[in-house]
């Protein structure tokens, strides 16, 4: 009996090692500008072509108003797709931390796609379900994201990173700037950019080309 | 075909016929795509002496050879036609998602001829191409049009189309892509004259490349360069092209003076525009994201991508310092589908003429043309889009408007081959500014080579790249301005043919992929070889660029461009000063040297047969040699009451 139980605080189960060491792919939605590079990277890695319709990650965009929402598999702890699969073709890979489809067993019924609460399972040209497998533990989309909107790492690292980025919107310049920004900060950022530009010009005078 | 989409769509609107033909591999190899393939198609299909607004004109829309791949910034759709604004080659490119989507559907080019009997739009879904009735879409502004088509076909489509300005044959109406990306030189009026409102595409086939591993590796390297670059991170993503307000000397009150970084009035500084910014956005596969999203509380409207050109032309050049109003005008130009540079410069010229007493209240229909009067200017922009009242005259476009007023007004038209020179500086960079305006194949222009001929912008990004390029044999503009310009024109021609963006940072690394690692075109050759499977080398790419450029020069020669049209005008107040005379003397010497080095006839400017033969396009010489073409004097103008007007 620990101290918490004696004062009536809810007992939380201890974190299992699996979740501490497991790496997850998360997204900082505010940083995504909707360039679709992750889709192209995903499809070349998995299918050998550049085709957003065969990508495991989809970015829903309305570029003109900057709403970009990447949709991808969040690798749920208790995955509805695995539960819904009638032939148990979806299993958790302990090594990579991803739910993977065993295409040898898959019967192509699409139940997993219907069950997914995020719409993260797509169907390819032959109507087979396709989903993110974290590229076997080294996701390609993370490497091309120009604004670092996709973050891959252990749960602790990633949550810490998110905390820093989100706080930037509130406490400007406490950490290096993410992309989230309040309207008042934009003016300040613009002023800083102008200052940087003057700095570049000054340095340019010393160049001997 | 690897790399390319592999098919070309031919649409004959008069006969309501659509045919899909495979892309000829030798054409593709010789002209790449985008601007190159478009210019070639135009030269073959447009007959000299036709009216740009007649059904005889041809509208060609093409994506670059690298569209739809993760090589960054390759999402420009190139739109080429015989320009109703200038009467010569008119081409421009626009960003957005159209070119990638068209490539995913398996096409490289859409060629449109004839005139539809009723408003029409083209619906493309992979192999299915269909002409559809657009009666209910006619009259919609760009935002409404794209939303309406998304409702019909789903939100994963991309749309190219025109707003009311194109429908009313405004001579500087643009082709708009996905609401707010615009491609200039008056192609929008050609859409209108063809009764064509929009093209909507969905593509699900994707792009295959010849050597995926190698190609992807090179593409990632190029992306990383921009991802890590400090200038991109700290300036470009924050204020976008607004930094040009400080660096590029915007004109004030119709080029009365040029504003240095310290002279910018409050209201026109980058930090003033940041007040209205609510987000940033970009085109397909771009790592930079230079476009701002702004919200205007006064009108409760949201728009995107206020570029430097819009802010200088509609703001500084008209002496408007009301930040929100300048953004509103930019937004209106996008919604109606008009080119901001020509729009702003035409309005500024009208104000200058009014000030000089060359036009008066009778001409303007009682509208006072005062500097800095934002409210009237907003009203005028609407009148231009619908060709109402004085707007009908202004809608004829920069030089054509002056021509309409008379020879006295023409003195104030600072144009080369019909296009406004935009902001310029008299004595910048060894005469490259003036020379580049003269040699551009679509009229005075800052994106045909000018900005690449000197290193002002490159030094912002990376001084090491400049050193590496000089070592690799790029001519130094201080010693050899003509050579420097020819090289930069090559870079721009290739960039346009790849679909690569040049506009945002105006630097070599942006226009030419991998130039920072393998100068000058070696990296690009590696990339293209990996993408297409066709062996390209630096030398063969130079040939491609020169081939495209000379075909364009031949096209303009056929439209009646003579050597005297390589002249560059200056304001009447300074044109006879010794300084400008000296400048002009040097200018003509450089024009001669330029034509000589390009392999053109120094007297007539026509490309020589031997040059064309060397580039493998001797048939072009058959079209122009020994023929007389009537001298160019702008496009044929219609009587003002013949245009569609009103709402």
Distance between the termini of chain B: 46 Å
Structural class of chain B, by secondary structure, is alpha+beta
The helical percent of chain A reads: 25-40%
CATH-level-4 superfamily name of the largest domain in chain B? Aldehyde ferredoxin oxidoreductase, N-terminal domain
Main sheet specs of chain B: 6 strands, mixed
Task: Give start-end ranges of low-pLDDT stretches of chain A.
Answer: 1-5
Total helices of chain A: the number is 8
How far apart lie the N and C ends of chain A?
75 Å
The amount of beta strand of chain A, in percent, is 15-25%
| Count of extended strands of chain B | 19
Question: What are the key terms here?
Answer:
heterodimer, A: 209 residues, alpha+beta, Alpha-Beta Plaits, two-stranded antiparallel ribbon, two-stranded antiparallel sheet, disordered N terminus, B: 647 residues, Aldehyde Ferredoxin Oxidoreductase,  A, domain 1, Aldehyde Ferredoxin Oxidoreductase Protein, subunit A, domain 2, Aldehyde Ferredoxin Oxidoreductase Protein, subunit A, domain 3, 3 domains, 6-stranded mixed sheet, 29 helices, 19 strands
SSE topology sketch:
The complex is a heterodimer of chains A (209) and B (647).
Chain A: H1 3-6, H2 17-21, E1 23-27, H3 37-47, E2 58-62, E3 67-71, H4 80-84, E4 90-93, E5 98-101, H5 111-115, E6 122-123, E7 129-130, H6 140-144, E8 150-154, H7 155-168, H8 183-204
Antiparallel strand pairs in A: 1-8, 2-3, 4-5, 6-7
Chain B: E1 7-12, E2 17-22, H1 25-31, H2 34-45, E3 59-63, E4 77-82, E5 89-94, H3 98-104, E6 109-113, E7 120-125, E8 128-133, H4 142-153, E9 158-161, H5 164-167, E10 175-177, E11 181-183, H6 187-193, E12 196-202, H7 212-228, H8 230-239, H9 244-247, E13 251-252, E14 257-258, H10 270-274, E15 277-281, E16 291-296, E17 301-304, H11 308-315, H12 323-336, H13 340-356, H14 361-364, H15 374-385, H16 390-394, H17 398-405, H18 407-410, E18 415-416, E19 419-420, H19 432-439, H20 450-453, H21 456-461, H22 463-471, H23 481-498, H24 508-511, H25 522-532, H26 538-558, H27 578-598, H28 609-614, H29 619-624
Parallel strand pairs in B: 1-6, 7-12
Antiparallel strand pairs in B: 1-2, 3-4, 3-6, 4-5, 7-8, 9-10, 9-12, 10-11, 13-14, 15-16, 16-17, 18-19
Helix pairs in contact in B: 1-2, 2-23, 2-26, 7-25, 11-12, 11-13, 12-15, 13-17, 19-27, 23-26, 23-27
């Amino acid at each position: 009996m620990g101290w918490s139980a004696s004062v009536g605080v809810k007992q939380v189960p201890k974190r299992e090692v699996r979740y501490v060491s497991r790496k997850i792919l998360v997204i900082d939605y505010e940083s995504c500008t909707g360039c679709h590079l992750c889709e192209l990277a995903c499809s070349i890695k998995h299918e050998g072509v550049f085709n957003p319709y065969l990508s495991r990650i989809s970015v829903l965009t309305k570029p003109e108003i900057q709403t970009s929402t990447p949709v991808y598999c969040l690798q749920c702890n208790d995955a509805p797709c695995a539960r819904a699969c009638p032939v148990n073709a979806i299993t958790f890979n302990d090594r990579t931390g991803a739910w993977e489809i065993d295409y040898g067993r898959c019967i192509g019924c699409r139940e997993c796609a219907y069950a997914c609460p995020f719409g993260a399972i797509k169907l390819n040209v032959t109507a087979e379900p396709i989903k993110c497998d974290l590229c076997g533990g080294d996701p390609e989309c993370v490497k091309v994201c120009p604004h670092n909107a996709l973050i891959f790492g252990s749960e602790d690292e990633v949550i810490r990173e998110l905390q820093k980025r989100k706080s930037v919107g509130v406490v400007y310049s406490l950490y290096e700037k993410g992309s989230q920004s309040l309207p008042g900060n934009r003016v300040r950022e613009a002023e800083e950019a102008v200052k940087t530009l003057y700095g570049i010009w000054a340095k340019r005078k010393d160049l001997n080309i | 075909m690897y790399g390319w989409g592999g098919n070309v769509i031919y649409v004959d609107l008069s006969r309501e016929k659509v045919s899909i033909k495979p892309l000829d591999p030798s054409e593709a190899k010789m002209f790449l795509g985008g601007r190159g393939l478009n210019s070639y198609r135009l030269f073959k299909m447009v007959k000299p002496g036709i009216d740009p607004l007649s059904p005889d004109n041809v509208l060609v829309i093409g994506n670059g050879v690298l569209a739809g791949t993760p090589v960054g910034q390759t999402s420009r759709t190139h739109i080429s036609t015989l320009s109703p604004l200038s009467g010569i080659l008119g081409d421009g490119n626009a960003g957005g998602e159209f070119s990638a989507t068209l490539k995913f559907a398996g096409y490289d080019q859409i060629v449109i001829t004839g005139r539809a009997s009723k408003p029409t739009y083209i619906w493309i879904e992979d192999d299915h191409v269909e002409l559809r009735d657009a009666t209910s879409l006619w009259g919609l502004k760009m935002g409404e049009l794209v939303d309406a088509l998304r409702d019909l076909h789903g939100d994963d489509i991309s749309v190219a189309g025109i707003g009311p300005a194109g429908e009313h044959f405004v001579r500087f109406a643009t082709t708009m892509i996905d609401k707010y990306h615009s491609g200039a030189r008056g192609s929008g009026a050609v859409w209108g004259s063809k009764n064509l409102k929009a093209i909507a595409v969905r593509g699900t086939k994707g792009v295959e490349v010849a050597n995926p591993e190698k190609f992807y590796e090179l593409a990632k390297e190029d992306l990383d360069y921009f991802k890590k670059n400090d200038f991109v991170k700290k300036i470009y993503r924050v204020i976008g092209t607004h930094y040009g307000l400080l660096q590029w000397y915007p004109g004030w009150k119709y080029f009365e003076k040029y504003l240095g970084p310290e002279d910018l009035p409050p209201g026109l500084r980058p930090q003033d525009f940041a007040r209205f910014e609510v987000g940033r956005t970009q085109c397909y596969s771009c790592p930079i994201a230079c476009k701002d999203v702004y919200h205007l509380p006064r009108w409760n409207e949201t728009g995107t991508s206020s570029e430097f050109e819009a802010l200088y032309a509609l703001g500084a050049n008209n002496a408007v310092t009301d930040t929100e109003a300048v953004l509103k005008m930019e937004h209106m130009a996008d919604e109606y589908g008009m080119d901001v540079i020509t729009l702003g410069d035409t309005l500024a010229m009208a104000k200058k003429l009014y000030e000089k007493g060359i036009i008066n209240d009778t001409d303007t229909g009682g509208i006072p043309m005062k500097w800095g009067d934002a409210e009237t200017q907003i009203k005028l922009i609407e009148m231009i889009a619908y060709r109402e009242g004085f707007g009908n005259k202004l809608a004829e476009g920069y030089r054509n408007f002056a021509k309409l007023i008379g020879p006295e007004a023409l003195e104030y038209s600072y144009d080369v081959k019909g296009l406004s020179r935009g902001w310029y500086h008299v004595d910048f960079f060894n005469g490259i500014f003036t020379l580049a305006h003269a040699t551009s194949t679509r009229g005075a222009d800052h994106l045909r080579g000018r900005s690449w001929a000197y290193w002002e912008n490159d030094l912002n990004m990376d001084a090491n790249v400049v050193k590496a390029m000089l070592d690799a044999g790029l001519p130094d503009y201080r010693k050899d301005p003509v050579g420097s310009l020819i090289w930069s024109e090559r870079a721009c021609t290739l960039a346009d043919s790849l679909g690569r963006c040049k506009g945002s940072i105006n630097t070599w690394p942006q226009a030419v992929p991998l130039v920072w690692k393998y100068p000058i075109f070696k990296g690009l050759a590696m990339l293209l070889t990996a993408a297409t499977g066709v062996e390209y080398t630096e030398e063969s790419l130079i040939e491609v660029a020169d081939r495209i450029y000379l075909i364009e020069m031949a096209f303009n020669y056929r439209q009646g461009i003579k050597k005297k049209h390589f002249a560059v005008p200056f304001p009447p107040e300074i044109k006879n000063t010794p300084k400008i005379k000296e400048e002009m003397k040097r200018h003509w010497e450089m024009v001669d040297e330029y034509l000589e080095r390009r392999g053109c006839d120094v007297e007539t400017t026509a490309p020589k047969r031997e040059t064309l033969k060397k580039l493998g396009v001797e048939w072009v010489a058959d079209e122009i040699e020994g023929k007389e073409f009537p001298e160019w004097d702008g496009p044929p103008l219609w009587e003002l009451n013949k245009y569609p007007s009103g709402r």
